[in-house]
Every structure is written in C-alpha cells, then in structure tokens.
Amino acid sequence: MSLNTKGQEAYRSMVLSPFFKIGMLKEMPMGTIAGLKITELNQKQCKVTVPYKHINKNPFNTTYWAVLGMAAEMTSGALVQMYIHQLQPSVSMFVTNCTGKFIKRALGETTFICDEGEEIAAIIQKAIDTNKPQTIICTAKGYDKDGSLLTEFTFEWSLKARGK
C-alpha cells in the first residue's frame, strides 16, 4: 500500500531525529518528561521505549501504569500519524477505547511494539475510499530488556477522511 510515501518518509525522518524531543515538549510534554522515545518506525511496526526512573514510578516501585499506557499509545499512534502525514484528503484520528493487561512488574526500561502498520494503512485507505469512518484495534505489547512480556494494551482508533 503506497498512500503517501513522501509524507511517510518525512514523518519518519522527523520522529527519528534527535530534535524530535523539542517538538514533543510542545505537543506532548508529559511524554517528554517521562522520557518516551521512538526507537524504530517503519511501514510494519513502531517501537517506543520508556525508562524506569524516579518520576515514572509508583509507590510499589514499578513503572506507573499511566506512563506505560502513554508509551503504548504512542506505538500505534505514531504508525497512524506516519500514514496520514501530509495526506490529501486529510484523515482525522481519535482513540475511542483502550484496555490494558498487566502480566509482570515493570522494573526497568520497557519497550513497546505495535506491528500492525500494514493493517493501519489498509484501514486508512478504506476510510478514504468509502468516505466513511473506520475503526481499527491495535495492540501494543511491552517487553523488558530480556524480552519478557510485561504488559499489553489495545487501542481502538477511529479514522475518518475529511472532506476534499
């Protein structure tokens, strides 16, 4: 699926740039404070890391669930944004549902992976082709440095092509 490959590449270059933190400070200040970082973004998947640090922890000395959720949302959100960046007609995106499952304690850096990029692209194309809102449920799984599954979030995204 091609959608807008120039827009995708422009978005990828922007978020993988060392200067992205400056933009993130303006658009997503809590993500900046928490230390969220997009480490990989391509047409298939996005990886986001969140460190374990004092400001991110809860009274039980694990990473606070909301910080984990923020990083998890960013994985699928960055994939959606990559595909709709500079797209004409533009496409709106909105989270309509979210669930979280916690398997193990997050005691160190957590890496979230969403590998549904191709499905996201297809749904965006369908929203454009039909001019009707579409939804997709994306899964973001969080792993520790040893590759153990810590948590799993799902996000339902509503996607709608705007008028031409």
Feature tags:
single chain, 164 residues, alpha+beta, Thiol Ester Dehydrase, Chain A, 5 helices, 6 strands, globular
Q: How is this structure best summarized?
A:
The chain has 164 residues and is an alpha+beta fold. The protein is built from five helices and six strands; from the N terminus they run αααββαββαββ.
Description:
- By secondary structure, the chain is of the alpha+beta class.
- It has helices at residues 5-15, 20-27, 29-34, 65-84, 117-130; strands at residues 37-41, 46-50, 91-102, 110-114, 134-143, 149-161.
- The chain has one domain: Roll (Thiol Ester Dehydrase, Chain A).
- The longest helix has 20 residues, at 65-84.
- The chain is globular, with a radius of gyration of 16 Å.
- A six-stranded antiparallel sheet has the order 1-2-4-5-6-3.
Treating each run of at least 4 consecutive H or I residues as one helix, how many helices?
5
Radius of gyration: 16 Å
The major pleated sheet works out as: 6 strands, antiparallel
Low-confidence stretches: none
* Beta-strand content bin: 25-35%
* Assembly of the depicted chains: single chain
Percent helix: 25-40%
CATH architectural category: Roll
Q: How many DSSP E strands?
A: 6
Order of helices and strands: HHHEEHEEHEE
Tally of domains: 1
Mean pLDDT: 92
- Tell me the strand order in the biggest sheet: 1-2-4-5-6-3
